[in-house]
Design brief:
- The structure is a single chain.
- The protein has about 170 residues and is mainly beta.
- It is built from three helices and 13 strands.
- The chain has helices spanning about 5-10, 150-155, 160-165; strands at about 15, 20-30, 30-35, 45, 50-55, 60-65, 70-80, 80-85, 90-95, 110, 115-120, 130-135, 145.
- The strands form three sheets. A six-stranded antiparallel β-sheet has the order 1-2-5-12-7-10, covered by helices on one side. A five-stranded antiparallel β-sheet has the order 9-8-11-6-13, with no helix packed on it.
- Strand 8 (about 80-85) and strand 9 (about 90-95) form a beta hairpin.
- The longest helix is centred in the N-terminal third of the chain and has 8 residues, at about 5-10.
- The radius of gyration is 16 Å and the shape is globular.
Length: about 170
């Protein structure tokens, strides 16, 4: 019997995520990087690394957001996932994660620190189950949810996509 969204939420004890979808932290390094050893964009020490399971279900999306660290996504199961990335320089990139490598889908992709990004399963009826690893480790202090007004002021040519993926 194929795995379902409900199976994943139940078996991995996934919780709602502020950007959309569900998550469960699976790893927090035991060691920290001291603030004076980090770039100035960080306020306080950070863990070496963190990791989560992440699920986007049918009809769900991860709203445009950015963090202060690089974030590597890992595709596990379900429908392919589109990640929409806006660079600080104004560029746009579409990354499709999935298991159809002959269609250019990738199992792993890294979103660089400071880039805005949003995501949505390719199949409106399907779900995407992934993992995300962040280094230096994720801290909600480093998380910024995008607004339509802010993003349009920097990326006016991406208006349709921005309006679709902001809350």
């Amino acid at each position: 019997m194929p795995i379902t969204e409900s199976d994943l939420i139940k078996n991995y004890h996934l919780l709602p995520h502020p950007e959309g979808g569900f998550y469960k932290e699976t790893y927090r390094s035991a060691e920290h990087i001291q603030e004076e050893c980090l770039p100035l964009r960080y306020h306080g020490e950070r863990l070496f690394s963190t990791a989560i399971y992440y699920l986007l279900g049918a009809g769900q999306f991860s709203a445009f957001h950015r963090i202060q660290s690089d974030e590597t996504w890992h595709f596990y199961a379900g429908s392919a996932l589109n990640i929409y990335v806006l660079s600080p320089e104004g560029g746009f990139e579409l990354i499709t994660m999935g298991n159809k490598i002959d269609f250019g889908q990738v199992f792993q992709a890294t979103i660089k620190a400071g880039h805005w990004f949003a995501a949505q399963p390719n199949d409106p009826e399907g779900f995407s189950f992934l993992g995300c690893t962040v280094a230096p480790g994720f801290d909600f202090e480093d998380f910024e949810l995008g607004t339509v007004e802010e993003l349009l002021s920097h990326y006016p040519e991406q208006e349709t996509m921005i309006r679709q993926f902001c809350r």
